[in-house]
Design goal:
The structure holds 2 protein chains of 2 kinds. By secondary structure, chain A is an alpha+beta fold. Chain A has 9 helices and 4 strands; from the N terminus they run αααββααααββαα. In chain A, the strands form 2 sheets. Chain A has a two-stranded antiparallel sheet with strand order 1-2. A two-stranded antiparallel ribbon of chain A has the order 3-4. In chain A, α5 crosses α7. By secondary structure, chain B is mainly alpha-helical. A 3-stranded antiparallel beta sheet of chain B has the order 1-3-2.
Chain lengths: 180, 238
């Protein structure tokens, strides 16, 4: 009974949230009323919920994306939703922006000079563009000469690229092999 | 960025090098630097014609290549040879490293298209004052009824009535056709609304300005008399 209640609460929370809710956040909301609930059992319940939606065969589903749980529509329905929202949602990123983003994603936290070094060209305008699009953010300063700022990728980055977590990026070793 | 050639195939010196390597079907580990350098210099020349300042971006890369090329022609001294290989290795590693991220960039560009098909719940902009509506429909009706009661005796329609200054001007002149003068207070008394009184006042000012009437007052706060100016009056005053 208790488990069912928690499941209902979680579903309600996901229903109203526009951003992926992390296990930590969900636990924070629930633990006051259901003491002793741990993240493991929460995750189990969420997976159960996700499974339920799969079985219902709804046009939307519960997904784990960008380190959190969220409702999302299935890609099949994009053409009609696009008409409703009357907007072009595809984020336009140039090849140089994409490779810069890739460098930040794998080597974060990283300074501008380190990015420049990999790319062989000056990257500040590309970095500014990525900051503006909220794909990367400044996390702090490196304790080295000149104290340059350090960049990391954002939750928006994961959401935008449909990644559950950073570790879902293809491993750098695989990429190297495919280049040989 | 000084270097502005921005196509899908070309961007930045390392990328240019990559492109050349690919075109010549060269294994990265066996780059024939000499061949690439001449290609590279032709391109550099082209760049200089397009944009002088951008050429400087390439100088480090070009000079590194030329340095290696020069070493290639010089008689080999074992120590120097190693040095040259070192630079070559460094360059190779850099290119290999860069190639990886370029590949990942491609992977990301596919992901972004796939993900754009997925919609999340729309972002609602939270208002500055988060309030909770703590009433029922009956409360709304009650408060409306209360308001209605307070005002019931005193409800009037507000009608906008246009009164033209010109109309009032001719009205005043009409009165003065039969009388020698008219009291200002008499004119005002005939007006039914405030707005009509105001327009009357403006009409009088207008008539004075046009020298069609003149105004006399015998003392402070005494009655204001309005006279019409006709040729006789002017003569009299003269």
């Amino acid at each position: 009974m208790k488990r069912f209640e928690i499941k209902q609460i979680l579903e309600a929370l996901l229903f109203v949230s526009e951003k992926p809710l992390s296990l930590k956040e969900l636990k924070g909301i629930i633990k006051g009323d259901y003491a002793g609930i741990d993240t493991n059992s929460l995750e189990n319940i969420l997976n159960e919920l996700k499974e339920e939606y799969v079985n219902l065969n709804k046009p939307y589903e519960i997904k784990f994306i960008a380190d959190g749980w969220v409702f999302a529509t299935k890609p099949k329905y994009a053409p009609w939703i696009g008409k409703l929202l009357k907007e072009k949602r595809v984020l336009k990123l140039s090849p140089s922006a994409l490779e810069t983003l890739a460098i930040v994603a794998y080597k974060q936290p990283i300074t501008r000079a380190e990015i420049d070094d990999v790319r062989g060209v000056e990257s500040s305008s590309v970095i500014d563009g990525l900051l503006e699009k909220k794909m990367i953010k400044i996390i702090g300063k490196k304790e080295t000469l000149g104290k340059p700022v350090l960049y990391v990728t954002t939750q928006d980055f994961l959401k935008c690229f449909g990644l559950a977590r950073l570790s879902e990026l293809p491993s750098i070793e695989n990429i190297s092999e495919s280049l040989q | 960025m000084a270097y502005n050639v921005r196509t899908d195939i070309f961007e930045g010196p390392l990328e240019l090098l990559l492109h050349l390597i690919k075109r010549n079907d060269l294994e990265i580990s066996t780059i024939k630097i000499a061949e690439i350098t001449s290609d590279y210099l032709i391109y550099l020349n082209l760049i200089r014609k397009l944009n002088i300042s951008s050429a400087s971006e390439f100088l480090v890369m070009a000079s590194t290549l030329i340095q290696i090329k020069a070493r290639h022609f010089l008689p080999s001294i074992s120590e120097k040879e190693e040095d040259g290989n070192d630079t070559l290795n460094k360059l190779n590693n850099k290119i290999l490293e860069y190639q990886k991220y370029k590949k990942i960039g491609e992977f990301l560009s596919h992901r972004i298209i796939e993900s754009s098909q997925i919609y999340y719940r729309p972002i609602t902009i939270p208002s500055n004052q988060n309030f909770v509506l703590d009433v029922v429909v009956l409360d709304l009706a009650k408060s409306f009824y209360k308001t209605l009661k307070t005002f019931s005796s005193n409800i009037r329609d507000i009608v906008y009535q246009e009164i033209r200054v010109e109309t009032k001007m001719s009205e005043i002149l009409d009165v003065l056709k039969v009388k020698q003068y008219v009291f200002f207070s008499d004119i005002l008394r005939k007006q039914k609304t405030n707005i009509a009184s105001i327009v009357c006042f403006m009409a009088i000012l207008e008539l004075v300005k046009d020298r069609q009437i003149f105004i006399k007052q015998s003392g402070l706060f005494s009655e204001i008399k309005i006279y019409r100016i006709c040729s006789e009056n002017i003569l009299q005053r003269v």
